[in-house]
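4.2 Preliminary Data

To establish feasibility before requesting continued support, the project team ran the inverse folding procedure on a target of 318 residues. The structure was first converted into the token representation described in Section 3, and no sequence information of any kind was made available to the design step. The complete token record follows.
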């Protein structure tokens, strides 16, 4: 790959050749990357925002697309080439993984009429019955994996970041789609200025039998690092057993440096770590097993969570 100092390009809306060293500020970098995306890529980028996905206004497409561009630019320390490469990979992944179908699986409305998944319903042969069947199948598979209550979104920190909980002991079958659904839901729920989320992993009663196969674990960590770059604020590992060190030795090579820096293992006797949590969370927004004295202890009602609440609503949000 050529270095950014001698990389030339021609913007789609201009015949002027520009060097990347002329991109002296974030806005010019964002505009350049936007100019290099196809209309379909721009639409996919915009639809990565749940707000736009639910109400896709064409005149607002670039505005929403710029959000993901800005996030990748910041994640890649302003490197235009690298950010563009990662963005294109992410947009391709979102199409191939049919993330929009996952997000809207439990919607009551026919939101899939707005879908731009051209591989599924891009012609007259794909009628409403076929769409409904596909949506029903996706919902059925997701509900099966989420029924163990291994993932759910509940509570917010003091900055408005939603909290995604993962309970490894509740894992029955290992899959990627339920993880994607849960991460996407947490992002949609986030009320923070930076749009990031917190992840809390409760290792209480964990055993190595709950560990994912190497390929599944690797795929999940790669997805987290590549597709959701810059959207995780903190990852808290709570009640980690001795066997966790074995698991960490296996999977740590697949954890990105930036992600590793966001991980904090919470020990029962580490008062300074507990203080950090109390500074970050109000006790009304955290369960007692996470922060002693936490008051958000209502057990997850899966039917309410999946079918009665909007996708961008956390469970037990009052």
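Position-by-position output of the design step:
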């Amino acid at each position: 790959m050529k270095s950014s100092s001698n990389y030339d390009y021609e913007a789609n809306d201009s015949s002027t050749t520009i060097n990347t060293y002329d991109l002296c500020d974030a806005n010019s970098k964002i505009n350049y990357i936007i100019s290099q995306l196809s209309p379909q890529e721009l639409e996919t980028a915009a639809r990565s925002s749940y707000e736009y996905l639910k109400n896709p206004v064409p005149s607002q497409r670039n505005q929403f697309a710029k959000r993901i561009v800005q996030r990748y630019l910041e994640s890649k320390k302003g490197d235009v080439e690298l950010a563009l490469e990662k963005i294109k990979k992410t947009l391709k992944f979102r199409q191939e993984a049919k993330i929009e179908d996952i997000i809207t699986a439990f919607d009551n409305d026919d939101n899939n009429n707005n879908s731009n998944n051209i591989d599924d319903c891009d012609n007259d042969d794909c009628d409403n019955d076929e769409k409904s069947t596909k949506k029903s199948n996706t919902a059925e598979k997701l509900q099966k994996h989420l029924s163990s209550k291994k993932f759910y979104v509940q509570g917010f920190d003091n900055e408005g970041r939603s909290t995604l909980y993962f309970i490894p002991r509740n894992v029955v079958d290992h899959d990627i789609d339920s993880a994607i659904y849960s991460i996407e839901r947490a992002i949609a729920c986030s009320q923070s200025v930076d749009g990031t989320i917190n992840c809390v992993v409760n290792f209480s009663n964990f055993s190595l039998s709950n560990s994912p196969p190497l390929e599944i674990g690797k795929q999940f960590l790669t997805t987290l690092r590549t597709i959701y770059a810059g959207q995780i604020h903190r990852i808290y590992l709570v009640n980690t057993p001795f066997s966790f060190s074995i698991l960490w030795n296996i999977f740590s090579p697949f954890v990105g440096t930036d992600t590793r820096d966001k991980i904090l293992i919470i020990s029962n006797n580490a008062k300074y770590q507990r203080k950090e949590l109390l500074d970050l969370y109000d006790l009304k927004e955290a369960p007692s097993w996470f922060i002693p004295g936490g008051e958000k202890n209502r057990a997850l009602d899966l039917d309410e969570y999946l079918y009665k609440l909007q996708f961008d609503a956390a469970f037990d949000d009052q």
